[in-house]
Amino acid sequence: MPRKSARNKQNRPVIITGNWKMYKTIEEAAQFVEALTPLIKQSPLSAYLSVPFTAIHSTAELVKKLDAPIVIGAQNMHDASEGAFTGEIAAKMLKDAGAEFVILGHSERRHIFHESNSFINRKVKKAIAEDLQPILCIGETLEQRESGKVEETLKSQLLESLKEISAKDLEKVVIAYEPVWAIGTGKVANADDAEKAHLFCRKVIAEKWSQEDAAVIPILYGGSVKPDNAGALLAEPDIDGLLVGGASLSPENFSQIINSFKV
Length: 263
Ligand code: PGA
Hints:
- The chain has 263 residues and is an alpha/beta fold.
- It has one domain (15-259): Aldolase class I (TIM Barrel), CATH 3.20.20.70.
- The protein has 12 helices and 8 strands.
- Strands 1-2-3-4-5-6-7-8 form an 8-stranded parallel β-barrel, surrounded by 6 helices.
- The structure holds 2-phosphoglycolic acid (PGA).
- Residues 19, 178, 183-184, 222-225, 243-247 line the site of 2-phosphoglycolic acid.
């Protein structure tokens, strides 16, 4: 099946991606793909699924076999082409296994594994060079929000993680705004606050690149997205999709989120 890619009213591609984090064996991943496929048949979207490294190849093969509207991706990678980096994985290996996109700079990578903006910047460049679509995550902590530093945080994460990326390469990038306090906590940013943050990100892109670049870049929201709040988030003019953690582990919940997007 050719990839289904619907656009929203702003003519930007809509992307709804699951992020399984460190969940699901190969067998569990296969069961999920088989269960999800019929549930999203009517959607104009292909579902993106960011699965553990060990399940990339098997799920990518299964998606092909089932002709399912699902795009398989990874959750992280290293910026080097290859080398003595025990425990790491290269973009080329992800591609080889069947990944088409990669989440970079997720807050769990930034906070638990201390990844810096400059490391993430190198990864974004490498993913683009290897033709893996990067989904770059940014977002403020609760402390930064409470001390009025949301914009300052988003601006520096965006500019540093996207440093020296040309306008042409920026076209391949997807941004995910994920307030850290909303991830896995059940506290979703209300649609208004999320919209404000997305609009601000677009302003930063417009200032650094151009108004045209800011108008076309897809910006996803992530953080406690559930079937009952997905529709309101997607209705905001600057929210072009969703990055879903916990609720992407169940085919029923994830399909409801996918199906909440209507053209
Ligand atoms: P959550 O995770 O939906 O469980 O809050 C979001 C994420 O993976 O960033």
